[in-house]
Amino acid sequence: MVDFLKEAEGIEQEVIGWRRHVHQYPELLMDLPETAAFVERELRNMGYEPEYICQSGIVAVLDSQKPGKTLLLRADMDALPIGEESGLEYASKHPGISHACGHDTHIAMLLGAAKLLMKHKDLLRGKVKFMFQPGEEGGGGARTMVEAGVLRSPDVDACMAFHQVVARDHVPTGIIGYTRGPMMASADMFRITVRGKSAHGASPESGVNPVQILCQIYNGLQSIECSEKPRGSALALTIGQISAGRAGNVIPEQGFMCGSIRAYEENVRSLAKRRLREISEQTAAMYGGRAEVEFPSELPATVNDLQVGDEMFGYVKELVGEEGTMMLPQIMGGEDFAEVLKEAPGVLFRVSLGDKQEGYPYISHNSKVIFNESGMKHAVAAFAHCAVRWLNAH
């Protein structure tokens, strides 16, 4: 068996170079012309025939020409609308946009794996499908690619992805982390619009104040998390925006508030969404107004398949040893690889690109975040090693 960690070390500088190039030219959501063109070019240089299946969404297939199953490996590619303050010499050249969530590292790691697997194609059975996805940061990219057929022709039997983790306590660079079952929460963004009746501040009795109604709805929603969810279940219902009116002496016609619901379990998620709608509508009606509830963005929980996840984690341990792995706790953040995991059994691993003890204090989505590039080779190697082992075992 090839030592894929040693192989990954051999192309480490090339992987870092890919990452730094992408890092300088970040793009948002589904519109990634420069990023997608770069990925397409590098894949063609390796001998692949990549195809666009949706806006900025690229798929490439490595066919071993031997019978077997199909394993999908995925990387997301979009950046964030956050100006970079890292001070790096290869910092973003696009003002107000940066790869603060490390998707540039994900691209580079999967390109590295694609290069190693093409080199060692003779070790494979079946097919490896590479998915380079736009629009993870709220763009619905995974769902778009699923609907465009990323899991078909050939049909995908299992899937695998990596997400970087940084600035944790005592999770050193290169550690590969695994969470059994639900690992990241669902993320449902909501907007509650309350319509009342405008009036002068001197005669409030002639109006219906949406500000008052919004306050009552806000208070009522607290009961969902405090006393209505099943005991022992996790739920985060957060309001992050409230807005109404333009003048202090005028009761406005309407107002709104926005927030998110996050849960690991589908029954808890459904309960919270149902009760949010009921409390909003009934509270508004009680005060003479009307509430409309919308969910502009809905994302299921990220749930690792136990059979595929445990098996792949065993292969990771073969590669890096027990000491190179760690069981990591669930987190309330969302990840749209969940849309792929809904359709095909698979696993999302995490790879550490620096912890606090090593001098990496800034978390993802921070304008000053810096990632330790030396950890990327572990994910490159794990992608390749797991692909060879899993496809030969099935």
From TrEMBL:
Superkingdom of the organism of origin: Bacteria
Span of domain Peptidase M20 dimerisation: 189-284
Gene Ontology molecular function: any one: hydrolase activity
Keywords attached to this entry: Hydrolase, Manganese, Metal-binding
Protein name listed in UniProt: Amidohydrolase
Binding site residues for Mn(2+): 101, 103, 137, 163, 365
Binding note for cofactor: The Mn(2+) ion enhances activity.
Cofactor dependence: Mn(2+)
